[in-house]
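This section describes the prediction task in plain terms. A model, or a person checking by hand, is given the sequence of a single protein chain and must write out its three-dimensional structure as a string of tokens. No templates, partner chains or ligands are provided. The sample shown here is typical of the held-out split.
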Amino acid sequence: MTLPPRFQDWFTRQGWQPHPHQIALLQATGDTLLIAPTGGGKTLAGFLPTLVDLAEPHDGMHTLYVSPLKALTADIARNLSRPVADLGLDIRIEDRTGDTRASQRARQKVDPPDILLTTPESLALMLSYEQAPRIFGGLRRVVLDELHALAENKRGDQLMLCLARLKALAPDVTVTGLSATVEDPQALAAFMGGAQVIDADPGPDPDIAMLPTTNPAPWAGGGGHYAVRDVLAQVAKATTTIIFINTRAQAELFFQAIWAANDDNLPIGLHHGSLSREARQRVEAAMAAGELRAVVATGSLDLGIDWGAVDLVIQVGAPKNVKRLVQRIGRANHRYNAPSRARIVPANRFEVIECTAALQAVRERDLDGDPRGPGPLDVLCQHILLTACAGPFDADALFREVREAGPYRHLTRDDFDACLDFAATGGYALRAYDRWQRLMLRDGLWRLRDPRATRDLRMNIGTIVEAEMLKVRFRGRGGAPLGEVEESFAATLESGDTFLIGGQTVRYDGLRDMVVEVTKQPAREPKIAVFSGLKMATSTQLSHRVQALIGDPTQHGTLPADTADWLGLQATVSALPRPGVLVSESFPHQGRWHLAVYGFAGRNALQTLGLLMARVMEEAGLAPLGFLSTDYALLIWSLDPVTDPAALLDRHALREGLGDWLGRNAVMKRSFRNVATIAGLIHRNLPGQRKSGRQATFSSDILYDTLRRYDPDHLMLRITTDEARRGLVDFDRIEEMLDRSDRLDHRMLDRVSPLAAPLMLEKGRVPIAGQGRERLAEAEAAALMAEAGLT
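The expected answer:
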């Protein structure tokens, strides 16, 4: 297919020439995956074949567009309206998301638009309608935007199952995936079920560097507040700036800090997922209208929204992931062949090293990403139930269809039958209960036993299970809660554990009615110093780069002088962590012995390692008192020294300890709840009400205990074990750490080492109310650094 004269004339009137990858996509046959830089015209490339086709009349829905974000559908509709109007095309474009009016959703069932813009969850819902064959039967094209973002989680697995269903309903449909940041294009093409990869010219290298700051980065902390005035100075020079922060809490705090320093009253907005839809839309509209000079944002603005006026991106805090950094950089100068301009602000001294490593990776176009495992079975269970909502199905045909989905191409018939049995009966231990008897076999076809169940199943579509926050209160004293902790953190606690909250050390007594009950323990050191839940962990590949940079003194010249001097002193008094060697240190401090293990395995994995090593230390009589983890190191403090940590790092012992700990710990129950919710065993949403987190947890805990006792081989338990190992505890990265460490280099020191000193500051970090907080923190840091030999 060539570009028709009508369309070539339109490009000419805009002063444009079609990009080669846009023409290549127009001429391609079969499924395609376009890899093009941000601002490279991916959206127009994806829709160009559609617009050319729709220059001629077409009945029914022609193109389905799927994106990860509802905000992107509105942006795409706005961007498409211009060429459609300019070309005089009679095309109806509508969206279908959770925000779409009920009347419009009802009309779309009988009169679908030419182009429908939707999300994976809304597509799954539409495919569950009995009208699905009529709605999608004439579909010609599917466009999957920001596919890399969907492929990273279960939403992508759900989408690929929906895609296999669409291909069964519309055999002539072709699929185009669009992405800007892909570390392995062939793997992403296989995720789509097979596709031709089209690579666009990657464009010029970005203008990216560390932001020079008036003050050096602090030794510890994660807010980046030391650089607020430097960031404001950059905002004042730019037209529009996006300031990316890694977490919502940090974004709120940085926004407050930047407003406090905003002497010129520059218009600055805030955007993250916890804000109301109305608040987010006001910020988006103000950005589009050019009314804001900057917006402080989290990942809510990572993807594809096109604000051409943005000419600077500032990343506050280490990006943790090179791919994420590249995606964020691309928000600046959202134009083809114009270099994106970005500056990075490390939050602390160690992040200076991580940011340097990330900058090197960006310049070398070396993206990170872990290989995807097989398609999760809880998502398949949900898909089977939703398929039954649309009408009776043949098991053999559905099995063949599911195997067309990329993540499930190696699915065994035994696993499929296990999922079908679960969907039909709930499994061996639950088949006696009517509520889980949902499917029956009649005339060779599986169908819903009670068609009224479709309402409940449709209300619980999706793979996103929100994390519950638990209130913390003093036991028996009532009153206002001390604060909240993530359920994933509470799940790691055992009776007697101590932790910090609201500036106080408290002892965990138990969980009652989904409230964490504690007792004040002012004289006790906190066993777990900082609760952090599942914070974003540094990727495996970036961790390797950081370790290699630290371990090679010839590269220290790429670092600021004070950071290079810090590492030089570490090499003198102890050892530098380096590839192939696991470095650890034991040293005394304030009457306690401390063990530092530089594992570079990510915060979650090292937190799990801390739990497991502390247990072994307890059994060995070393009296461990507590631990903390960062992305690069684990610190455990105890009454007696660890002189040889090899026994604590024995792989067999760690595996045994993990199994024992998981079997007795609430982590498995929380993983089970997530799996059971996705698979349809538990319904969070019910007609006229939403089940509270307390109710859902109570139901799932009873089910978990029942299955462990009467059906330990149940499918849900099998999935749960795998999920907990990979997700909540990240044990695979502990094993990866051991695999890449040929030997252990343990040093016995007489004082804290330079590299361990920032860990000690994390250990002692307690929120202090009042004006003197920063001054006290600085004094503590200065004293500790002096002890480590750093002045």
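For orientation: The first strand starts at residue 32 and ends at 35.
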